[in-house]
Amino acid sequence: MDSRLLRRNKQLDTVARHIITVGGVAVIFSVIAILFLIVRVTIPLFKPASVQPLATLSQGSERAPLVALGIDDYQQNIFSLDSTGSLLFRPLADTDNAVAVDLAAGSNRLLRQVTTVAPNHYGLLWDDGSLSVARIDFRPQFDQQGRRTIVPLTEIIDHLPPPEHEAAVVDSLAVFNEQEGLLLRVSLHADNGFSIWRRTVREDLFGDETISEERQAIAPYFEEITAFALARDGRALFAGTQGGTLLRWRLADADITLTDTMPAFKEPITAMAMVFGSQSLAVGTAGGSLTTWMGVRDSEASETKKLRKIHTLQSHQGAVRYILPSQRDKSLLSLDNEGRLHLDHMTSERHLLNMAGPHNLIALSSRGNSLISLGADNVLQVNALHNPHPEINLRTLFGKVWYENYDAPDYVWQSSAGSDDYEAKFSITPLLFGTIKGTMYAMIFALPLATFGAVYISHFAPPHLQRLIKPLVEVMASVPSVVIGFLIALVLAPFIETHIVALLLSFLLLPGAFLLFILVWQYCQRFQVVQEMRPGYEFILILPVLLVGAYLAYLLGPPLENLLFDGNFSRFLFDSTGSRYDQRNCIIIAFGLGFTVIPIIFSIAEDSLSNVPTSLTAASMALGASRWQTVWRVILPSASPGIFAGAMIGLGRAVGETMIVLMATGNTPIMDLSIFNGMRTLSANIAVEIPEAPVDGTLYRVLFLCAVLLFVMTFLVNTGAELVRERLRKKYMRY
Fold first, then answer.
1. Residue 471 falls within a domain, yes or no?
2. Are residues 40 and 170 in the same domain?
C-alpha cells in the first residue's frame, strides 16, 4: 500500500482521536460545571447569620436612660427614646442633624416601659400608670429626580388613663388594630391580678361608627406572676409564674376563662413574647432555657387546644431577660441577664448568631435587616443583619417538623400562603416520595410490556412484522410529552374515573383471558391446521381475545359497582379506608409515563436480544429445548446486561419527566402509597414554583437544591446500572 496513503490515514486517525478526546472532556467538564452552578446557588441556604457594623454612636452622659430604640429599613435613620419621653431621630450620615420630639408633652411623667402594640406602634407606660399609644415610623419621600429622603413620623394615637384598680400597675401590654377598630390594654397589678380595658369601633354599611368600651378583671393568682404576653388579636393572655407555671386565659368570650394551668418548668419564668403570627408563645426562664409553646388538640375529634411545648432553642448561660420576635419571620432575638444576645429560628430550631455583651437594649428593623443595641457606656451600636434563610436546615428539608396549627410533626411542602405571617414549609421528603412513587408505578406498567414485546419481536415475530412494529414503537419516543400529558389529563383521567371498577376488573379478566387462550392453544396443537401455522402468529391471535376480555370488563364494571360499592366506588373508598380518589392519580401516571418509557426500554432490550449469538439458540434447540425454554434459559440471561441497561435508562427518563407529571398528577405534595392518590415530583415542583420564586430567595435556592437531588439521583441510577450491567456481562460472557 502507498506509504503516503498510510501516513495520511494515520494523521486522520490522530486528528479524529484528539477531536473525540476533546469532545468527551468537554462533555464531562460541562456536566461538572452545571453541577457546580446549581450547588453554588444552594450553599447559602446553610450559612449562619452575620452582622456588619454600620455605625457607633455615643448618647452622652447628660441624657436620661434610654427605654426604646428603633431603626428604619433603609439603614439610614435611627431613633432613641429616653425615660423623660424625649424622642430623638438621628440620620446615620449626619448624626448632628437630629430631630427631637417630646412625647411627654411637657409633663413631668417618666416612662417606665415601652412595648410594641402593632407594627411601628408602641405602648408607652408612664410612671402614673397611664398608657399612651404612639406611632413612630419612617416615611420615604421622593423628589422629582427620584432621590429618596427618609422623613420621621410621630403621632400619639390615644392616651389611656390609669386603670381603676386597688393595686398599683406593675406592667401593661396593649394591642392596637386600626383595621379591626380594636384597642386593648391588659395591666398586671402588684396583687398578681389583671385589669382589662377594651375599646371596639364598628362601622355599619352606612358609615356610622359605634364605639363600645368594656372593662374586665382577672382575680389575683396565688403565685407571683413574673412575665406575661398578649396575643396580637387580643383573644388570649399568657402568663408565667415564679414557680414555672404557664397560664392561659381566653379573652374572646364575654366571660374570661382560664383554659390552661401547666407546671411547665421547675424554675421561674422570666420572659415571654408572641412569635410573629401570634400562634406560638416564646418562653424564657431563669435557668436560661428558651422554648416555644402552642395550642394543640388532644385528639382529632377534640376542638379544645392545650398548651404544649413544640420547639426547644439554644439555651443561654444566664436567665433570659428579654425576647424580641422578628416582624418578618419566626426568628427570635433573646437577651440574658449578662447582656449576651442570641438569634434563633423557631421552626428550624437553628441557632443563627451569638453576640457577646453587654447589651442593655435591642431593637430590630421591620425587615429584620438591621439591629441596633445599647451597650456599655451608653454607646449605640448599629449593625446590618444578614439572615436570609433562617428556616432552612437538614431537619426542615428532610425530617418531620412540628408546624403551627398542626397536631403532630409532619413532612409538609407549602411555599406560600394567604398571609405574610405564615410558617414556610420546605420539606423535600414528600417530593422525593412522589418522584419515587410515580416512577415505580410507571416502571411496573412499562417494564413487562416493553421486555416481553422485545422478546416477541426479536425471536417470535415474522420478519415482516419485525420491520413494521419496531419502527412504530420507536416512533412513540418522538411524541412530545406535553401532548401525552394533555391527552391523559383531559381524556384518559375522566374516562378512568367513570370506569374505575371496570379498569380494576380488567386486571383480573385480561390475565384470565390470556391463560384461557394458552390452554385452548395447547389443545389445538393436535390439529394439522394449527401445526402448519407459521411461528409467531399465535401472539397475533391473542389480541382479539384480550379485546374481548377488556370489553367484558367494560360491560361488567357499572353493574358490579352498583352491587358491591353502592354505585359510588370513590365514596366507598373514602368511607372504608379514609383514602380519597383523585381524578389525576398514579394510575394515570402509570399509563402516561409508561407510554414514554416503553420505547426506550423496548428498543435497547430488542437490540440486546437480537445480538445474542445464534449459535447459543441453535445449541439449545438441538438439545431439545422449546422456543420458550430457549428464550427463558439462554437468551434472556445472555441479554440481561442490555435489558437491565435499558430499564435503568427508562428509569432515569421517568425520574426526570416534567410535563406529564405536571399536567396529570394534581401536584399535591402528599406521602401516600395509594394508587388512587396523586403526588408531586421534584421536576414538577421546580416547574410549578420557579415562576413565583424571587431570585436568591429561600424558595429559589430550595428549588435549585431539588435540581441537585435530581442530578444526584440520576447519577446514582446510572452508576448503579453500569456496575450491575458490567457484573452481568462478566457473568455471561463465558458463553
1. yes
2. no
Taking alpha carbons only, the member of 175, 213, 172 closest to residue 195 is: 172
Note the helical H segments in 399-480: 429-459, 463-475
Q: Do 463 and 593 sit in the same domain of this protein? A: yes
> Taking every pair of C-alpha atoms in the chain, what is the biggest distance, in angstroms?
121
CA angle in degrees (0–180, nearest 5) for 287-293-297: 145
Domain that holds residue 186: 163-220
Burial 277-313 (b: 16+ CB within 10 A, else e): bbbbbbbbbbbbbbbbbbbbbeeeeeeebebbbbbeb
Kindly state the average pLDDT of the residues 243-262.
88
Boundary of a domain, candidates 203, 220, 237: 220
Q: How confident is the model at residue 527 (pLDDT cuts 50, 70, 90)?
A: confident
Q: Do 40 and 176 share a domain, yes or no?
A: no
Domain count, the chain: 3
Grid cell listed for 264: 411547665
> Of the residues 220, 242, 265, which one is the last residue of a structural domain?
220
Nearest CA-CA partner of 718 in 665, 661, 645, 664: 645
Q: Is the pLDDT of residue 1 over 60?
A: no
3-state secondary structure 481-496: HHHHHHHHHHHHHHHH
Q: In this predicted structure, what is the pLDDT of residue 622?
A: 83
Long-range contacts of residues 543-550, Cβ cutoff 8 Å, at least 24 apart = 545/513, 545/514, 545/516, 545/517, 546/510, 546/513, 546/514, 548/513, 549/506, 549/509, 549/510, 549/512, 549/513, 549/514, 550/506, 550/509, 550/510
Task: Pick 341 or 143 by higher pLDDT.
Answer: 341
Does 39 share its domain with 186? no
Q: Rounded to two decimals, what is the model's pTM?
A: 0.87
Burial 13-47 (b: 16+ CB within 10 A, else e): eeeeeeeeeeeeeeeeeeeeeeeeebeebbeebee
Q: What does residue 198 show for φ and ψ, rounded to 5 degrees?
A: -130, 135
Same domain, 487 and 626: yes
Is the pLDDT score of 241 beyond 90? Answer: yes
- DSSP assignment of 269-304 equals EEEEEEPTTSSEEEEEETT--EEEEEEEESSTT---
- 460: CATH: 1.10.3720.10
- pLDDT value, residue 663: 87
Taking the CA atoms of residue 9, residue 12, residue 13 and residue 17 in that order, the dihedral angle to the nearest 10 degrees is: 180
DSSP per residue over 156-225, as a string? EEEEEPPPS-SSPEEEEEEEEETTTTEEEEEEEETTS-EEEEEEEEEE-TTS-EEEEEEEEEEPPPSS-E
pLDDT tier at 656 (50, 70, 90 boundaries)?
confident
Question: 372 with 382: CB under 8 angstroms?
Answer: yes
Q: Are residues 482 and 611 in the same domain?
A: yes
Average pLDDT, integer, range 510-531: 77
Residues 31 and 176 in one domain: no
The answer to whether position 647 is within a domain reads yes
What is the model's pLDDT at position 672?
Answer: 86
Q: Which amino acid is at 416?
A: S
230 within 8 A of 175, measured Cβ to Cβ: yes
Domain contains 79: no
How many whole angstroms separate alpha carbon 57 and alpha carbon 375? 10
Residues 170, 34: one domain?
no
35: number of CA atoms within 13 Å, CB side? 13
In a domain, 111, yes or no: no
pLDDT of residue 293: 94
